[in-house]
Amino acid sequence: MMNEFLTEDTKAIILLCGVFGEGSSEKPLSLAEYSSLVRWLIEVKMRPGDLLQKDNIFEATRGSGIDKQRLESLLGRGVQLGFAVEEWQRNGIWIISRSDAYYPARYKKHLKDKAPPLLFGAGNRSLLSGGGLGIVGSRNVDQAGVAFTRQVAEICAYNRMPVVSGGARGVDQISMTAALEAGGVTIGILAENLLKKSVERSARQAIADGRLLLLSPYHPNARFTVGTAMGRNKLIYAMSDYGLVVSAEHKKGGTWAGAEEELKRENALTVFVRVGNDAPQGNSRLLDLGAISWPGSIDRNNFRQQLHDLTVNSRENRPKKNQSLFDFQAAQEIAPAEEPPPVTEVVEEKPTIAELEPVGEPEVKTPGCPVSLYQAVLPVILNKLDSPATAEELAETLDVNKTQLNAWLKKVVEDGYAKKLSCPVRYVALKEQNPESSVPKTCGTSIL
After folding, report:
1. Do 100 and 10 touch, CB atoms closer than 8 A?
2. pTM for the full model?
3. Cis before 424? omega within 30
4. pLDDT tens digits, residue range 75-112?
5. Which CATH number fits domain 116-356: 3.40.50.300, 3.40.50.450, 3.30.450.20, 3.40.50.80?
């Protein structure tokens, strides 16, 4: 079972790429900048966590071209990260990075270097392996589309096939709700407000039952933007075995853009579309781009095989595409969940940066591991107490609440890591004490 602690690699990645706290003067690394940094790490056989050592930052700047001051500023947000992580974990939110063994393999295979560096989640983490039917569509879906969506979601639940969707109003919410009400499993890839969504009554119950996974590449309090919605669409397809477009406006909106993006991908999934007199024009136009019609009749007891056969037939008839000069290599198909993979010719693949990225072993949770924020920020406090300092000076330096800091300082003194001086009242670290020496190495010891 994945533990609640952040690995050293994930700490570094979230410091570099994450959005949290207030007043940060430096912009977190973009996906392209992070991938550039990873290329250098691979070349020099280092891990993201090695960047937590200041001696490595200068070389990282030379190797990646990212400004040294920017890297130092981002990596120096340890205290702010500590507060953010405490809040997230208190609300059941966990974080994984591309360097974690639990990171979805489907994202690395399908999205390659476009796989998001960080994922925030709530719910059943065993569902990270993905698979199922990705159902997408308009927020303002017609009644025929509503009925169609419910019917398909219920068939998925009957066949124990996860429904993957985006959690937005309209088709997304209808499909996820219908699947859960029918006793099925759902994976929600969110573009906004993961924290708010995860504590809703219906979500809490489904999470408690182990039938819901909520996932987002954006921080848990992120607000909706067109950009976050567009970035989320590709993650829905990449998590699924097949896609299904219920309703799309021709060349308008995120549903059309996401389907078009997927259909143009070299290793595209099969994208089904609802057809018929009630279907919007955009659906038929997607057929021209390579989507295939959703079958007019469904064999409820042979649903998986029916989708598999339609996929095989469509690929046999699909014209070959010219591979892009900039495409590393088409990803090997991941067989649908609970379906035997088709026998294909074995082709040696060139791994992508995302796949080459160092992956750490999952850490083992032991009874002696620290679980408090105090243990995480202790090394930071002692570093600042190398020379005597008042509580006011320390609170200003660390940008933390004085009441919280006084509680920490009291415990630091009680634990024998620092001494309280008088006239005036100051604190200084005791040189012979090393807080990390008593912490098991298998634990996530420091947020920095």
Report:
1. yes
2. 0.73
3. yes
4. 999 999 989 998 898 899 999 999 898 899 999 999 99
5. 3.40.50.450
